[in-house]
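Course assignment 3, question 2. Fill in each field.
Student: A.L.
Task: Predict the tertiary structure for the chain below.
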Amino acid sequence: MVCRVRDGCLAAVLALSCTSCTDLLLARYRDDALLARHTYRLGQEYLDLGDLTLCYQEVGQGDPVIILPGLGTSIDFWQLNVPSLAEHFHVLAMDLPGFGKSDKPDASYDLLWLSRQVLAFMDAKQIERAHFIGGSMGGHLGLLLALHHPDRVGKLVIMGSSGMWPHPGGLADLALKTLWSEWLVADHLRRAWPDIYWKLSRRQPPITHDLFRYQMAVRADSRRYAPEGRAAARALRSIFYRTCRNQLDEIDTPVLLIWGEADHIHPLKDAEFFAEHLPDAKLVVVPDAAHEVMIDNPPLFNDLVRDFLAPQSDGRKGLAERPGRTARQNLTHDKRHNAVQGQTLQDCHHPVTVASRPRG
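Answer field:
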């Protein structure tokens, strides 16, 4: 008992020390006035789900398309994409619980819990089925939805996604279960965010500087960031355990993988693994782009998504005409197609490399 109290006190002192050091390091980013007046460039709406409130944007008509941002980001990162996509689809971009301007309750932030909140959002908006666009952790959530709720997912676009790491074993499992500290992980994400942020995009158009100012203003205020830091630490831990690596061949959903050639968060080998193991996937590698392709090359990203989600793009019907699937049906495997096949696609904006695994 004494040891537990002692260890708890030491952990608290360490956390406070780390927080104080990080506060000093980030003091130059403090901007209370910005935090007080900040709104998303494309506006924001709020949906009360009962136990939490989600921030979202909704615009356009047609098949519903839901955008799921990555860990530590928000729907504001998609401001160069939502208007263009809304010319063709009913676009709903949502801040995930724990991030952006959505509520940040003291919850598990397990990826399956986050997936349930996405489904609750769909139910509240009376959307039975939707296409999904997910960046990074948002792509991971899209894969989990396609795996566990295929009847709710039409097509899936994932960009720089997690979801294929091996399940932790041995020392990694022991470390994640015994040494993982939410305080230290959250503090690291605060402290290291400038380095992480500028690796997200390569071209860094003007909006990236505005996004950075607001993100750092939030992180410079330790009390304001604490709930998001807690959510990020818990979600990050769950990413390791909720891997789809050994179940990718069970996902029958058509998937478009859009990957920056210079992605240093989830490198190209991750994309190639997805393309090789997902039964119905196409990989587009975008040169001169990093983790956030939708920021590095918005016209190309928007065109790729529009063409992929359009009903005529693959001969399949639109969402309203397609029956829901509750399980994989009549999907066969041809071992000859296990290797990724590559070709070149010329686009009016940039040449990109396309690799696909055709359906067996």
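Instructor remarks: The chain has a mean pLDDT of 87. The chain is about 40% helix and 15% strand.
Grade: pending
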